[in-house]
């Protein structure tokens, strides 16, 4: 089985082994003031795709805010049918400022984490859901650390 994914690399250029050795990244730019853009609560891209999953995998998902979010909205990350299972809902996205980690419902600078690994079966894609209003600006880099369980198990940026 060939896997086309990025392994984390240390300062000497060596792969870093781990329980979830593969990493994918997806930058999401919110522009909910524009119809049908990511962040438009009533638009075609709500929910929006973050990572495409095939087969069965184990994953840990987190976000790092690059540009503060703007809007009176909520945000959560999960799967169709369980939209906040991977990252709990932030009830006020303006609490997510630049350089804060999105690991749970209360983002913080330099937040400690105890990674919660989830099993995704059957290739359910990882999505973000905007609620209650638009997110009109902001940027988050989402990271997915993953490991295949089935022969076709894979995660890639959507």
Number of strands: 11
Rg, Cα atoms, Å? 15 Å
Catalogue the unreliable spans.
none
N-to-C terminal Cα separation, in Å? 21 Å
Which assembly state applies to the chains in this document? single chain
Average residue-wise pLDDT: 92
Explain how this protein is built.
The chain is mainly β. It has a domain at 48-157. Helix content is 0%, strand content 47%. It is built from no helices and eleven strands. The protein has strands at residues 22-29, 48-54, 57-70, 74-79, 82-90, 100-102, 108-109, 118-120, 126-131, 137-148, 154-157. Strands 1, 3, 6, 7, 8 and 10 form a six-stranded antiparallel sheet that branches. The chain has a five-stranded antiparallel sheet with strand order 5-4-9-2-11, with no helix packed on it. It is globular. The relative contact order is 0.33. The model has no long low-confidence stretch (mean pLDDT 92).
């Amino acid at each position: 089985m060939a896997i086309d994914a990025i392994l984390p690399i240390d300062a000497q250029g060596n792969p870093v082994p781990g329980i979830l050795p593969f990493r994918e990244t997806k930058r999401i730019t919110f522009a909910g003031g524009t119809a049908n853009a990511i962040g438009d609560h009533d638009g075609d891209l709500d929910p929006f795709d973050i990572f495409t999953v095939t087969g069965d995998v184990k994953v840990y998902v987190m976000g790092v805010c690059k540009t503060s979010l703007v809007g009176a909205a909520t945000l959560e990350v999960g799967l169709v049918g369980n939209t906040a299972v991977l990252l709990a809902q932030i009830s006020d996205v303006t609490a997510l400022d630049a350089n804060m980690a999105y690991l749970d419902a209360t983002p913080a600078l330099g937040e400690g984490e105890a990674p919660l690994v989830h099993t995704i079966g059957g290739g359910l894609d990882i999505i973000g859901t905007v609620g209650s209003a638009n997110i009109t600006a902001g940027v988050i880099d989402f990271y997915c650390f993953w490991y295949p369980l089935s022969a076709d198990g894979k995660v890639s940026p959507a």
